[in-house]
Amino acid sequence: MNRSAARSGLMLLPALTGLFALAPAAHAEEFALSVSPPRFELSADAGQTVRGVVELSNASAMATPLKFSTAEWDLNPDGGVRTSDALRPNSCRPWVAIERKETTLQAKSQLRYRFEVTPPAGTAPVECRFAIIVAGRDENIKSNGLEFPVSAQIAVLVYVAVGGVKPQLEIVKADVRTINGQQTPVLEVKNNGQAHGRLSAFLKSVDAKGVKRELAPSTLPILPGETRTISLGVDNGTDAVEADKASPPAKPDPITFPLKVSGTMNDSVSAFAFEGTFEP
Questions:
Q1: For 71-85, 145-159, 167-181, 210-224, which range has the lowest pLDDT when averaged over its residues?
Q2: DSSP class of residue 4?
Q3: How many angstroms separate the CA atoms of 124 and 126, rounded?
Q4: Which of 106, 222, 206 is nearest to 159 (CA)?
Q5: Domain that holds residue 196
Q6: pTM of whole model > 0.85?
Q7: Which of 21, 55, 56, 134 could form a disulfide with 111 if both were Cys (CB 3.0 to 4.6 A apart)?
Q8: Domains in the chain, number
Q9: Predicted pLDDT at 78
Q10: CA of 10: how far to CAs of 20, 199, 237, in Å?
């Protein structure tokens, strides 16, 4: 982390689960599947196998056919996930073995689904990233006289740090952006390392009217080589996690800028003091 830059003034869940249901008006089978954890952050050495277990729970009163696959993924600027079946150059998905490709999860029941990742011997240090896709049955449904295909899916994101790779986060700019119709303090954060990183912090702030607030940075990941806008929101004890559809945050009272912020920040590797003044 570039501490001097930081001092110069520069997603609902870990317990969640993804819960999806098709609208009753569509007359489709219910897809009410919960998945825990929503992401895995693992580490391995070249030639070593690392394993994980996804816990699935079917809240529906009906048995649910499921299909499993792996996918590439990216994050939108707002943290939404884009997945792709196409194998990318240098993809680590060939290192991945999944327990099965199809199963039926009975009503009101649970399943422990296993996967493993084996980086080949001699693999250079790198962060392996992929998604495990859990998909319901493809259906054609009718709604308001129209028929269209629907496929409900959940993406479980997996990070594997191979060879001890770490993030190297640098705060390059403090700014104010309009988010959800309100001016919000943000940090532009660049990752010069080889693994994803997240900011965490306990920050106190005072605005131009003397209103004091405790702030926390969004916990969205900053991927290697990426510069991402990380918002500082009023700390209400929730955790923002990358997801296809994030719950909209409650609107805080407007901040009167300039806003002075100070406290302790952690860049996934070390902790340091932070001070900054944010103004439009």
A1: 145-159
A2: H
A3: 6
A4: 222
A5: 3-12+166-278
A6: no
A7: 56
A8: 2
A9: 85
A10: 40, 15, 25
Task: Give the separation between CA 44 and CA 118, rounded to whole angstroms.
Answer: 8
Strand order, beta sheet including 271-278? 169-179, 182-191, 227-234, 212-217, 200-206, 259-266, 271-278
Which range (55-69, 131-145, 204-218, 252-266) has the least confidence? Answer: 131-145
**Are 171 and 228 a contacting pair, CB within 8 Å?**
no
For the segment 100-123, the average pLDDT, to the nearest whole number, is 97
Classify residue 17: in a domain, yes or no. Answer: no
CATH of the domain at 208: 2.60.40
Q: Do 170 and 158 fall within a single domain?
A: no
β-pair partners for 229: 188
Residues 73 and 108 in one domain: yes
Instruction: Provide the pLDDT confidence category of residue 24 given band limits of 50, 70 and 90.
Output: very low
**9-18, 59-68, 118-127, 162-171: which has the minimum mean pLDDT?**
9-18
Q: How many CA atoms lie within 13 A of 157 on its CB side?
A: 24
Mean pLDDT of 114-141: 93
Q: For residues 106 and 236, state if they share a domain.
A: no
Q: What is the CATH number of the domain that holds 105?
A: 2.60.40.10
Taking CB atoms within 8 Å and a gap of at least 24, the contacts of 249-254 are 249/180, 251/180, 251/181, 251/182, 252/182, 252/213, 253/211, 254/182, 254/183
| Same-domain check for residues 7 and 83 | no
Beta pairing partners, 102:
67
Same domain, 137 and 201: no
How is residue 197 annotated by DSSP? B
Element (H, E) at 6: helix 3-7
